[in-house]
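Render this sequence as a predicted structure.
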Amino acid sequence: MEGVFLTLEGLDGAGKSTQARLLAAFLEERGLKARLTREPGAGLPPVREALLLREDLSPEAEYLLFSADRAEHVRKVILPALKRGEWVVSDRYLDSSLAYQGHGRGLPLAWLLEVARLATLGLRPRRTFLLDLPPEEALRRVKDPDRLERLGLPFFHRVREGYLRLAEAEPERFVVLDATKPPEAVQAEIQAHLRPLLP
């Protein structure tokens, strides 16, 4: 049986990593094999350091590095796990690039999607949980900001708006959740939305 691909998206500080871990544990408790992964870095680990630390990257180079990592992530991690019947839970995927490099950085969405089509082999998540958080709260939660997190409040307002537009365009895939709620309340909502997909 083919596996199920799930992603968690949102601003830095929204709790994606916590919710991804809780979700993988929930699936394992129900006897399902869960593969927990993340972007960037799951495909090409050195890319994560370059993306988060180098100050001199152009937005175009930034996106192409994300895409190279994503191409390997899809081919070496996600697709093999799905073929084994596993549930793949990824902390970030393509929607992050559309929100950050597209809406945030202002790169053309048509170009981003054309590169992504080849990089991802057209692989789309079955469900995407968008942890929505006001940018002011997101930046307050980030203790050690990386290169992208230092771009300031106007940038993060554009990214949040981008995420909400993506969710509005694909309501059958996206589930928008209030990330200001306690983590256990957010996880309960994620589990409730997933129950119809469980075997």
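Summary. Helices lie at 16-29, 45-53, 59-83, 94-104, 109-119, 135-141, 153-169, 183-194. Residues 67 and 115 are 7 Å apart (CA to CA).
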